Structure formats: structure tokens, C-alpha cells
């Protein structure tokens, strides 16, 4: 019987695994790209939390264990020096608020009390969120504009305050290093600090030059970019850049403002360092102030790296080690730094939360309103960074 070769050949199912892999591959990548933005934020937080745990495990815990062996010194602590250290820390924060007022343009300004509470609120956030510079800036900007300060004035003031404080710290640190080298000799870490300070100052100089001299070109470039982004107006972006550059240039030419800003920024750092000196003195050791500021400056430069909130663990471990290098016993150095950090780092967290609540809650609104304001403090900082719920996968195809 002959086979029937006529008609249509029956459909044959293609079981080629290579073809199936080629078809599935291109479909997988768009789906991964769709979910990628929703995975970045949790991954970033996990990495930061892991780094924080490492710092606490290998830097903070050993210091606390070592301090526990020297608790007998608490019976010999000088309460007067403790009180002086607390007062000096409060004065340091007050000087930072005065610096804020100095850098605001002439005209009606919020009271010093309001500016102090805003700075304290921002400090509380900086001590809670790892690498929380952007979150701190967002909260500060919102609170300043809520008090009637224009967005341009608030942005320029905050930028000038941050840049100026960094420059002042590095200059003071260099001066203290030069003097301490003459007094106690050269330490290997001084070279590293000098290089970091040089890089920071060069970066600040380039930034200031770009803002004051190259604002026109930068604004035109940003206008072209903004015009291509939906929801942005290139004209408004260009106007904002030029206005900010003009305000910054005017501020830079005002010798009175620069002198006052230099004074209050210097007092902010010097009083904070003096607070550390007082807490070390409370445990029986009077350190050379120049050498102590060199220790303080190095620790704060290292603590400024965006690894942990407010340099937690970094400042706490570097400071005692450097103090020991200048003749302070390890027990006194450890307990003195722990006492200082309780006031310098931990105390601004609850007081900053209360300061934020006092700005948001009117008198006699009750405890419930205050609790609500404090609970909304961090979410208000992260709201812009939050992502919507990820889209549901389409399994129909």
C-alpha cells in the first residue's frame, strides 16, 4: 500500500529547547528591568545596615567592653567638668543656629529660637539615617520654607553653611596639626589627613568658582536638559540657577557676612571640641587644647564619610585611640569620649524630635498631636525616595 503523499503535512510541535530559550530570554530582561527600581532601595538599606552592624561589632562593642573594666573611675568623676561639657555642647549648637541667621539675606527672618529648633531637628535625622545628608537637607529645606524663607534663599544658605563649615574645620585642623607637630612630633595619620583636607578644599574651590563664574553656561545646559524632561520647565530651571548664583555671589562679596560666618562657624567647631576636652578633664586628665583639637578634627573628618549616621562607631573609636597617642590613659580616653558622645550624638536625637514637634504642634494641642508629629518626622524625609507598590506581573501571556 503506497503512502499518501498528498494533502497538508500535519503540524509538528517544535520541541527545540534552543528556540524556547531564545524566546524566553528577551522576555525575561524587560521584566527584570521593570522590577529593578523596586529592588535597589531595599538592597541599599540592607548594605548600609550590614556596614553599620560591622562598625558596631568591631569598633563600638570593643570600646564598651574596655570601658566596663574602668567603671571604677565613675566614682572619681568631676561633676563640674561634666556640667561644663554639657553647657559647651549646647553653646556649640546655638552658634550653628546663629550661623544660619547670618547667612540668610537681609529682611525679616525667623527668630533664633526657631532656627535653633530647625537645626536641631535636622541633626536628629542625620544621627538616625545612614548617609542621611540628603534626608537632612530635605527636612531642613522644608522647615525653612515653612517659616517663610524662599526656596532660593534656603537652598543658598544651606549650601553656604555646609561648604563653609567644612572649609573652616579643615583650616582649623591644619593649624592644629602644624602646632601639634612642633609640640609632640609627626604622626603618620597627619599625612593622610592633610591629603584629604587638600582634596576637600580644592573641590570646594572648584564648586565655588563654577557657581560664581560659570553659572551662565551651566544654566543654559540645564535648561536644555530640563526641556527634555516631562513636567520640568527649562526656563524656570535656568532662572533658579541664575538667581541662586547671583545670591551666592552677592554673599561672597559681603565682607561683613563672611567675617561673621567665619566667626560663628569657628565657634561651632571650637566649642564642640572644648566640650570633648571638658569631658576628658572630668575623668582627671587635662589635655593640651591644640593636641585635643587635632584629635577632634581628624575624628570628625573621618566621621564625615557617609558610612554610618553621624560617624557612629568611627568617631567613637578613632578619638580614644588618638588621645592615647597624646598621653591620655586608655580608660580615661574611652570614658571621656563615651560621655562626650552621649551629649554630642545621642542627646540631639530625642531633643531634635521634640524640637520638630514644637515647630509642628501649636501650644495646647495635646500629647497625641505631638506623638503624631514625631512619628511623621522620618516618613516626611523619605517620602520623595519611596517607590510605589511594584506592578503586578501579567501572567496572561
Question: Could you tell me the mean pLDDT?
Answer: 75
Element string (H = helix, E = strand) = HHHHHHHHHHHHHHH
Radius of gyration: 28 Å
The oligomeric state is single chain
Estimate the global geometry from the Cα principal axes.
globular
Distance between the termini: 46 Å
What does this structure look like?
The protein is mainly alpha-helical and 397 residues long. The chain has a domain of 257 residues. The longest helix has 52 residues.
Characteristics:
globular; 397 residues; mainly alpha; 15 helices; 75% helix; disordered C terminus
Briefly summarize what is shown.
The protein is mainly α. The chain has helices at residues 17-68, 79-103, 112-126, 133-146, 151-184, 188-213, 215-227, 234-253, 255-281, 289-303, 314-325, 330-346, 348-360, 367-375, 377-382. It has a domain at 44-73 and 81-109 and 149-346.
SSE order and pairing:
Elements: H1 17-68, H2 79-103, H3 112-126, H4 133-146, H5 151-184, H6 188-213, H7 215-227, H8 234-253, H9 255-281, H10 289-303, H11 314-325, H12 330-346, H13 348-360, H14 367-375, H15 377-382
Helix pairs in contact: 1-12, 2-3, 2-9, 2-12, 3-4, 3-13, 4-5, 5-6, 5-8, 5-9, 5-10, 7-8, 9-10, 9-12, 10-11, 11-12, 13-14
